[in-house]
Amino acid sequence: MTKPPVAVLLLAATLSQASTKAAETPEQQAAAAAVGREIFQDTRFSNPVGQSCMSCHVPQSAFADSKALSTGAVHGREGRRNATSLMYAALIPNFSQEDILEETGEQIWVWQGGLFQDGSSRTLYEQVKRPFFDHAEMNVCSPADLAAKLRAAPYARRLRGDLSDEDWANDGNVNQRCYRALVEFLKEPMFRPFDARIDDYLAGSPDALSEAEKRGLEIFKTKAKCADCHLLIPGAWPKPLLSDYGYDNLGAPSHGPKDPGLGGHTGVAEEMGRFRAPTLRNVSLTAPYLHNGSIATLREVVEFYNKRDEEPGRWGKTDFPETVNHEDSGKLGLTDQEIDDLVALMDAFTDRSLLEMRKANAPFPVAPSATPDSWKMRAYFPDWNHAVPPLPPLPARPYPPTPPYHSPNETP
Ligand code: HEC
Ligand code: HEC
């Protein structure tokens, strides 16, 4: 995408001044991000205490969880999905519909973006509230409980900023500052370094990839069709994110309770079992794979794409067989060598700053110094104008409503 015109940048600045969610100046944005960093690691919120965001989003695993399903603060409670990497999460577009022109000339509308693998949070701001109150995650009793703990935190003064006594006494305001701080933290350069070997290669350094990886890249773009969904070209962000953030049902092996994904909240029959395509950035560090952690290694994921339909016995049952995408996957006819090359290629998607952090045993990665700060990139972030895309009218639900994954008492 080309740079947004100046008018758009000005509008972004005006709107963010008017919004309580946004950080208003570069200094306020940086201060909010710094407080967000502390909240992210704070284990005092959960009930019982001891769990923070970082318990499930582990920096060493590219801020994902090496457990297939994360365990909650309450002993014995388990979520139903694999924790995603938080690298590049602040760049995921808001949940919206996009019109696509099919080869047949037919215009169709498809869902795109949104947070959580089913897109059930329309924006990142909406998303960061949920882990606090989810009974299978941090299990905070109430918004009042969260606000009380924030007021007692060592960083409370910085969180409060310029809020008056009256505003600081209001739980909603205090919690809003916390959510905003987390959003600003997740926008920090360390979560978007774009310093993997694939970036060097795409920027014109042919030696950045090995011969096997170059062969893998060719297959990724052609025979295996991976790049149709895991895009190598920039979209709304000026660098490639290796995802189109569209929704598909790959037929992941069943694991845990039946999970309707996108269809669970849109109620559309064809959308049952569909999940958002993830970025493949840092995918070598985020095993196990798929929304339910049902596949252990990258080689097996590629074998699954290659022969899902030819070896159904190997993969077992899937939750929604009737909506599986058989057009783009399941019978690719890849040779063993081609599979090896694809797996090799995915290693080139790992950010150097994460590898360096792991080597140095450092707590967090450090992005290359040339990475632009959040203020400079403000018009590119999905939250730049805080506009939540309107939802079109949804059809009547053909399936009985599914129990909510997240707690019903998640008041903002
Ligand atoms: C008990 C483990 C656990 C804790 C604690 C936790 N998360 Fe998560 N997180 C998950 C899981 C599992 C998912 C994927 C759920 C899904 O897709 O439905 C997730 C998803 C996310 C996503 C969405 C990423 C995407 O690709 O859509 C964000 C952002 C996120 N978490 C941020 C946080 C923040 C911020 C905190 C702390 C306030 C936190 N998480 C605490 C397990 C956890
Ligand atoms: C039609 C779109 C589409 C195509 C084509 C596609 N993918 Fe995916 N990919 C997805 C979706 C959707 C998911 C998430 C599915 C789920 O969690 O159930 C996914 C998940 C993955 C994952 C797991 C990532 C994680 O963090 O769990 C890997 C690895 C992957 N794809 C690699 C590939 C490779 C390699 C190819 C080419 C052989 C490919 N994909 C082709 C849409 C696609």
Automatic annotation (TrEMBL):
Cell compartments where the protein resides: Cell envelope
Keywords: Heme, Iron, Metal-binding, Oxidoreductase, Signal
PANTHER family: BLL6722 PROTEIN, CYTOCHROME C PEROXIDASE-RELATED
Pfam families: CCP_MauG (PF03150), RoxA-like_Cyt-c (PF21419)
Family matches, as InterPro entries: Cyt_c-like_dom, Cyt_c-like_dom_sf, Cytochrome_c_Peroxidase/MauG, Di-haem_cyt_c_peroxidsae
Renumbered residue ranges of the record's region Disordered: 391-412
Stored SUPFAM superfamilies: Cytochrome c
Coiled-coil annotated residue ranges, if any: none
Signal peptide: 1-22
GO cellular component, one term: cell envelope
GTP-binding is among the record's keywords: no
Parts of the chain that traverse the membrane: none
Chief location bin: other
Entries under Gene3D superfamilies matching the protein: Cytochrome c-like domain
GO molecular function terms attached to this record: cytochrome-c peroxidase activity; electron transfer activity; heme binding; metal ion binding
Protein name as it appears in the record: C-type cytochrome
UniProt organism field: Luteolibacter yonseiensis
Cytochrome c domain sequence ranges: 31-190, 211-350
